[in-house]
Amino acid sequence: MTLPDSRSNSKVSSMSPDEYKTIAKKHEPPRSILKNCLKAFFVGGLICLIGQGIQQFFMSVFDMSTKEAGSPTVAVLIIISVILTCFGVYDKIAQWAGAGTAVPVTGFANSMCSAALEHRAEGLVLGVGASMFKLAGSVIVFGTVAAFIIGIIYALLGTGGGG
Amino acid sequence: MQVKGQTWTYEKKPVILGASSIVGPEEGEGPLAEDFDFIYDNIEINEKTWEKGERRLLEDAARKALEHASIKEEDLQFYVGGDLMNQIISSSFAARKMGVPYIGVFGACSTSMESLAVASMMIDSGAAQYAMAGTASHNCTVEKQFRYPTEYGSQKPPYAQYTITGAGCSVVSAQGDGPHVTHATIGKVIDLGVKDPFNMGTAMAPAAADTITAHMRDTGRSPGYYDLIVTGDLAAVGLPIAKELLKKEGIAMEETNFMDCGLMIYDRDRQKYVLSGGSGCGCSAVVTYGHILKRMKRGELHKVLVVATGALLSPLSYQQGESIPCIAHAVSLEMGG
After folding, report:
1. Where are the transmembrane segments (chain A) (predicted)?
2. Residue-range definition of the domain harbouring residue B52
3. Ramachandran quadrant class, B18 (left: phi over 0; alpha: psi -120 to 50; beta: rest)
4. How many CB pairs under 8 A join A and B?
5. pTM of the predicted model, to two decimals?
6. Contact state of B158 with A29 under an 8 Å Cβ cutoff
7. Is B223 helix (H, G, I), strand (E, B) or coil?
8. Lower CB density within 10 Å: C or N end of chain B?
9. Nearest residue on chain B to A27, judged by CA atoms?
10. Do B80 and B201 fall within a single domain?
């Protein structure tokens, strides 16, 4: 057996990433930002409208105030999102709706539920417990940090810490 | 065996005695459904976890390949396999059941041809009488490991690909009837700076172009020598890029049929969820072992070059902002002679 006598000296192997980028760019399928924004706007709006409907329901049927009806409304939206996730529907809607399903509370519920489902195979502690916040964790961390900063700004400006 | 550049020429021309392809439900809805040995009607593959499902596919495929080769499990001397899971668990766990001496290989989605090239080398060098090459992938195990939970609602870009659920195995031998493995061109790792883990076709196209260029240079052939040249999983975005790159290299791909397994396995008009096409270890394996070998046996194809492409990233590497190194291995299959 003889050892390899030559190596590839193809043009590709000596191409620069920038040069390749210009070639790749030509072949990248277009993404319509406008269409995605419109879909996100309407689906996100629709989810909020449903939420509004649920809130009205609690207010008129259970005689709750706007504030009181807030928590059960969120809970109902979360349950709907979890059910749709479990039936494997939510991700399909999300592929179409984009940010429309990601931004509202339903998206947050989906991120936790999908991670819990996915890691159920690794057990309740190491799987569900440890991995449930895999995606949602960063939302909570940065949400808390942002709230903390805003709180300090409020305090410094002397406008009081809310409420 | 002769070596020229990156290419091995197998002088004994190892024969693919038997091959198998087992797939999941979505591949069973695609245009190649008739060519597969078995189609599972559920994505769980009758198992409790995705990982067990993937392993089961591989175990089934191994059994089927031995059956098609008409040899007993105890006659098989080596199994060369790999997959996309961390520590190639699907292959190793399947090998545990087979009880055959095992060499684990990893080349991401290029594992199908990498394992076939190694198994053929064993036969050619006289290291084995019968050797098996195999690989598997499962859509959900790959999504879980490399991207997000399967049910997570994130919008995938149109250039994203869909990992196929399926496994393919082949039994290679020094004698017998069937397509011959004549050459293998082992690819170099090529990285042209693509960082988006959804953009696999774009990342892998240069590796495919480099390996095809090397193969033609080493063998002194031109693409017209082959009835068909297929890449593993470049899909709708990567294949045109590979074409353009090969044109720059001066390789006349228009002399032959230049296709991609990721585009052949699904009907993208009907199966919209696959976006730009199929990917995964199983993709080139089931298309080659299911569809292409059957067409060769029917006499529709005589000479085929399969260029399996692989993206050698890990979830950790792309989270740390590294670009995606890619590789492609080419294996030349010929009928008769």
Report:
1. 40-58, 70-90, 135-157
2. 2-173
3. beta
4. 137
5. 0.94
6. yes
7. helix
8. C
9. B237
10. no
